[in-house]
Specification:
Length: about 210
């Protein structure tokens, strides 16, 4: 395949989940797993989770999953009594959530298009819980210590949720959600792992190995 051919000429291969690692092994290629580089932003998301907002991220997808995610968010809002804010990480997120709101599927008080890290920190600092589809939305919520219900439109989201202990949407709202956010020590361990792997890979590349 094109992906295998491209990866075969790489001197180093670092992937972020076991699903991707299984592909490398199937193709007879070496590699190792490291957390997503977004974890480097972890220090800026400490001591959050005491706000009064429910953050919701929905992206376009087939099979009615955007509508299902919106309804899941409504269930969380009704359970927790939080103000709902729709969080777009792309223009297509903003478009689909605007459509869902116009059709009355859910009713966020506003739709916020995140344009940078400072804006993200400010918004997540006011959050109490989150429901989301996109990988990086779930990751940022985890970094901020915000309980996040992951809606796995793609295996990478499920792998992340399972590896990090996030609740996963399986057709109904988990009875324990929102519960508490991710343990800070787990984030620190992952950040150290990220630094360790990339330092080692960089050293090997510079040494011409």
């Amino acid at each position: 395949s094109l992906a295998r051919d491209a990866l075969s000429i790489c001197k180093a291969r670092v992937v972020r989940d076991r699903g991707s690692m299984e592909y490398l092994e199937k193709w007879g290629l070496k590699g190792e797993i490291a957390p997503d580089p977004v974890l480097a932003m972890a220090p800026g998301f400490q001591s959050m989770g005491d706000g009064d907002l429910l953050l919701v991220n929905i992206r376009p997808w087939q099979g009615g999953l955007p509508d299902t995610t919106a309804l899941a968010a409504v269930s969380v809002q009704e359970r927790c009594g939080l103000e709902m804010i729709a969080v777009a990480l792309s223009d297509e997120d903003e478009s689909i959530m605007s459509d869902l709101r116009s059709r009355g599927v859910f009713s966020p008080s506003c739709i916020v298009r995140i344009g940078g890290i400072e804006e993200a920190r400010s918004l997540w600092s006011r959050a109490k819980a989150a429901v989301g589809m996109r990988f990086h939305f779930c990751l940022i919520s985890a970094l901020a210590g915000i309980p996040c219900l992951a809606v796995p439109y793609d295996p990478k989201v499920r792998f992340f949720a399972e590896d990090w202990g996030l609740p996963v949407w399986e057709g109904k709202l988990p009875s324990s959600f929102p519960g508490i956010g991710l343990n800070r020590s787990r984030i620190e361990e992952a950040s150290e792992r990220l630094q360790e792997v990339f330092s080692r890979v960089l050293e090997s590349l510079l040494a011409g190995e």
